[in-house]
Every structure is written in structure tokens, then in C-alpha cells.
Amino acid sequence: MTFRMRDASRNFLLAALVLIAFAAAAFKVFNGPPQATFVVPAVQALPKVQLPGSARPSGFQAQFVSSVPGKAVHAPSVVELRDGSLRAVWFSGSREGAGDVTVQTAVFGKTSQQWGPEASLFDRVRLQRGLQRYVKKIGNPVIARAPDGSLQLWMVNVSLGGWAGSAITWSRSVDDGATWSSPRRLVTSPFLNISTLVKAAPVAMTQGDISLPVYHEFITKFAEVLRIDANGRVVDKVRIPGSRTSLQPVVLATSAQTAQAFMRATRGGRVMSSTTQDAGQTWSIASPIAAPNPNSALAGVVLQDGSRWLALNPTSAGREKLALIKLDDPASKEIAVEPASQNKGLTSPLTLADYAAVLGAELKSKGATEPQIAAYVSSAQRQLCGDANCAQEFSYPFLLQSRDGNLHLVYTWHRTRIKHIQFDLSNFQSPGPGS
Amino acid sequence: MIVPSDVFALVSVAIALCAVAMCPFRFWLPSWFKGRATGWVKAWILALFIALLVPMPGASIPLAGFFRGIIGDLSITLLVLSVWSLCHRLFDIAAISKHELTALLAVVGAAAVLLYPTALGWGDWDAYRPGWGSWWFLAALLTLCGASAWMGLRVLPALVALALLAWSVGLIESGNLWDYLLDPWLSAFALGFVFIKCWQIMVKRFDNRSNSRSSH
After folding, report:
1. So what's the pLDDT on residue A345?
2. Three-state DSSP class for A47?
3. Helix and strand tally (H, E) in chain A?
4. DSSP code of A311?
5. What integer is the mean pLDDT of A394-416?
6. Please, what's the b/e burial string for B67-87 (b: 16 or more CB within 10 A of its CB; e: otherwise)?
7. Does an H or E element contain A411, and which?
8. Mutation site for A-interface testing, chosen from B5, B53, B61, B144 by largest number of A Cβ within 10 Å
9. Which helix (H) or strand (E) element contains residue B108?
10. Residue B103: pLDDT band with limits 50, 70, 90
């Protein structure tokens, strides 16, 4: 009798626990984030800025962003600050994936039109302390302005293995990048939360949400889009179907409901694309478009006039050319960005001597001293040269339109410097990026 | 400043590692020891627990943080099983019955077979997505709890309920319900357990057939 009563009370307690738990979970689902739509264009989040006439670039202006010689640098991104300046971030270290890699930053003055000195934002130890977990290496920082006006920085970090073991960590700044919050991780995968990487700019959504294009590399590859709420938490994740050979999606929103994703293709040699008609709830099956892709990252932007631009390596192999193309306009021509005029006549691959001469000439024209040139060239040769030849590399572009209407392109220059090109589209006549 | 979800995750890792550390006492020590916990064993587990959570000199994180970086955050299910296992071995609390454990691990194994391949890219459908809040996922769990109760199981519905409560208040870093229900380590253990059970059943059937043939 006592046994039966004890059994009955246990069953009652269990039933009560289950009921309370399901009621709490149902309350959470019921109060979950409602459907959000894209905010287009995101650049309108801040008031328009007009540069003084003397400070306006004429047509095309190229500068180096990074300024520490001898480092391996990669994966830049850039955001406009409240005063019209730009802040770029990238990773830098002795080599990609090394424990000494840090996320670096520099500011491009609105009136000076010059990049300031670079500073370190995050290193492995700071990330480790903030995340309360072991961090082996960091990479790919992406900076953007959130709908609430704060700056958000997402970066890849690895605790175990190679880049396929990556997770995404983020931090927020409410003072335009002067200080940053303690880093937090995005949990995006049930398998040890590994293999979600970020490369491209997010798209702002209503209710303060963000659509962040990401990709997966472990076992197989595919592209996904995260929906992140105003508190920085992942609230949904949508896989782009048929993207099993695609990486590094770039999402260009054209209306509240429609957007197109463009992806790096690991096979096939052409940019992959997918579209959504329901603000990212579902995506069409990925398919190739006409633009070539040599398995390299691309960037995209929707300008204030609604035109869409991509920055990419316009070949089916190699990263030795970089260009801008305007989408939806068959009459427009590709704008060649790299190689610069110094090495246009040279055949690829370059000999070690030619490569050093080409890099040295451009570095010298931008004011580098001889010891600095030697350090930059040595770093580039270490990463991009074999015993006799070197492959030039202009990669990982990132595009931004500032409120003054100018288009900004930042990219990795020979893995040894980050380069910034500013186009005044109203005054831009010919490609001539010979610097 | 350590946030509560980090504290919870570090404590979870420390508890799970302590539960694993108890295994040698069960399997490799003399038979007279099995099922008993002497004072020094309790002291050793307590010392290990503290050592895992105290920040190491010269390091920015405690030892549990290094393990957390490698093994990830643990599910509520694995945490409760670890606590139960520790309490059973240290304080003679009743163990989970074999019937309950088999049912639980079979369900975890089946869920793992559905979740991990699809989440890691097998096809375009991702079973992980409903974990961010879906009515049909809740309905499936409610059905599972109802079926378990009808079969006389208590542990499985209790663990689902605890995971749901933890998810509702956001106890761990993840916002996805799947991460509260299971994790790769629990899944690997469950799949191994199910595989061995199936193997044992097959061997038993084979033996029975052989015996019945020889008796004819």
C-alpha cells in the first residue's frame, strides 16, 4: 500500500514537471521572434554625410590600409563610422592560422582621406578569456553596423583542428569601435558547434534583426543564412539548397522580401546563386550564373540607386585579377581593379625577381621604405611563391558604399597588405587603377 | 566578467569529467571496492572538481575551460546522467534501471541518427532548424513523453522536461533546444550502447537456433 502511494505521488510529480516544462516551452515558442523582412538599403541607417569639396577623391583613389611590414594579412572588411570615417578590420599574424594571429583595425579619416595606424582589437587570449574556453586560432573578421546603431564584429575562431572546426564569435561596440564588449559565441551547429564560418556583410532586417550569410566546411560544404536577433542571439538558420559545392555567400537584398545570394564555387568555375522571395525563410536551389569564379571569395553591394555590384576574381582559375562588375546591366563593362599598371605587361607566373620588383615598385610609390619593402616582399614570397615562380593574389574583397555615395573596396593584396580603393562613382570614367 | 551560461557550462564539464574519472574505480579496482565509495575516493573526486574549476596560475581560464574548448558544451541530459552516476557511486543512490536506461539510450541514438547527418549536410533539410522554436518539434516531444509514460517509463519524460525548462530560461549558451536534449558525446555513448545491445540479441538468437538444431 505504501509502495503504491509512493509510486502514485512520483507519477503525479513527474506529470506536473512535464506539464510545467511544456507550458514554459510553449510560451517561449509562442513569444518567439515574428517574421522579419529585409531593410533596404542598410546605408540609410545613418544620416547622409557630405565631404568638403577639397576632401573628395577624384574618380579613383588607392591606398594601403595595413601598415605593419612582414605580416601575413587577410580577410578585410570595412564599415562607415558616424562621422563619415571608415573603420577596417582584418586578421594579421606570422601566418594564417598561427596562434599569434590578431584581429587588427585602422580608421580612414573623413577629412584626411588617409588610413591611420593599425591597432590590435582581439587576440587568441582575449577571446579565450571572454569565451571561457580554449581557443587555438582566430580569423575572418567581419564588421558591420547593426540596425540599433552599434557596431558588430563577427570573427571565426577554432578550438580544435583546422578552419573546418570553426565557430563564430561576436562582439559589440556602442562607441564606433573605441571599445568592444566581451566576446560571445554564436551556437549554430549541434556537432560541437563546429564548422560555421563568416566572410560577408550582413543584411539588416526589421525588428533590429540581422541576416548573416555564413558557410559550413566540415565533411561537406554548404551555404547558410543565420538570423540573429537584436541581442546577438541566433534565432533561425536557413540552408541554401543545392549549395553543396558553395561557400562564402554574399546576400544582396533588393526589397523587403527579395534577395539574391552569390557564392564562391569550389567546383564548376562559375559563381553560384540562389534567390529568396520570402525574406530568407526559403531559398531557391543554387545554380551557376555567367560570372566566372576560380574558387575564390567575392563581395557584393546594393548601391543607393538600387544597382548591384560584385567584386570578384573574373577568371575561372587563379586570383591574379580583381574586377568590379555591375549586375543587371548587360551594357556595362567589367572594371579592372588589379593588377595595377606596374605589372600589367608581365606574364604569369612571375619569376621571384619580377615578383619582388612588381611589389617593390607599388610599395615604393605608396611611401614604403626599403626595409619595409623587403619585409613585405619577404612575407608575400613566403606565402605565394614556389622555388622559382610566384602567383600574384588579390583576394577576399569586401564592398561598402558610404553615405557620400562613394564605393569602397578593400581586399587582400598579395597576402601581405590590405588595400583600399575608393571610387567616386559620379566622377568615375575609366578603369585605370594604376594607382 | 563570466556570464551565468559560462559558469553553468564549466560546472557541467567538471561534473561530467568527475563522472568519467569514477569509471576506473568501478572497472579496474578489486571487486570488493565496486559499488562502494570510501572517504578518500570522495575526497579525490571533490579535489578533481575544484581543480577543474579553479583558474590555473598563468592561464586565463580554468582547466575545465580547456576541456570545454575541445568537447563543447554538454546537454542537460548528459549533465543529469552524470550527476546521477556520481550520486549513485558516491552516495549509494539507486541506479537508473536497465529498462529505463535502454529506452533512453535507444531514443537518444535514434535522435542522433536523424540530427547529426542532416545538420552536417546530408541533404538540404536540416533537422537542427526546428530546435530554435517549432510547434511540431514540441508536439513530437510531447508525443514521446506520452508514449514513454504509457510504457511505464519515468526517466525519459523527466529528462525531456528538464531540458525544456532549461531551454525556456536559456541556461546554456545555445538557443537551440536540440543542444539541451543531446550532445555528440551522449549520442556516441547511446549509439555504442544500442549497437552492443543489438549485437548481443543477434548472438543470443543465433545461439538459440544452433541449440535447437543440435537438439533435433
Report:
1. 66
2. coil
3. 4, 27
4. E
5. 96
6. bbbebbbbbbbbbbbbbbbbe
7. strand A407-413
8. B61
9. helix B98-119
10. very high
- pLDDT band at residue A210 using 50, 70 and 90 as cut-offs: very high
Grid cell for residue B169? 530560461
Q: What is the DSSP string of B112-175?
A: HHHHHHHHTTSSS--TTGGGGS-HHHHHHHHHHHHHHHHTT--HHHHHHHHHHHHHHHT-SS--
Enter the C-alpha cell of residue A14: 513527474
B68 in A contact zone (CB under 8 Å): yes
On whether any CB of chain A is under 8 Å from the CB of B75, the answer is no
* pLDDT tens digits along A214-238: 999 999 999 999 999 999 999 999 9
Locus of grid cell 595595377: A340
Closest partner residue to A133 (CB to CB) among B68, B116, B176 is: B68
The answer to whether A152 and A171 have CB atoms below 8 angstroms apart is yes
Per the prediction, chain A carries an average pLDDT of 91
| Helix ranges (DSSP H) in A182-293 | none
Q: Percentage of chain B surpassing pLDDT 90?
A: 76
pLDDT at A40: 84
Handedness of CA B103, B107, B110, B112 (dihedral sign): negative
* Residues A74 and A90: beta-carbon distance below 8 Å: yes
Closest by Cα among B87, B85, B6, B21 to B51? B21
The string of DSSP codes covering A65-108 is: ----TT-EEEEEEEEE-TTS-EEEEEEEESSTT-TT-EEEEEEE
Q: What nine digits make up the cell of A339?
A: 593588377
Closest CA to A394 of A419, A423, A429: A419
- Residues 128 through 147 of chain B touching chain A, CB cutoff 8 Å: 128-129, 131-135, 138, 141-142, 145
Is the predicted ipTM greater than 0.95, yes or no? no
Per-residue pLDDT at A434: 41
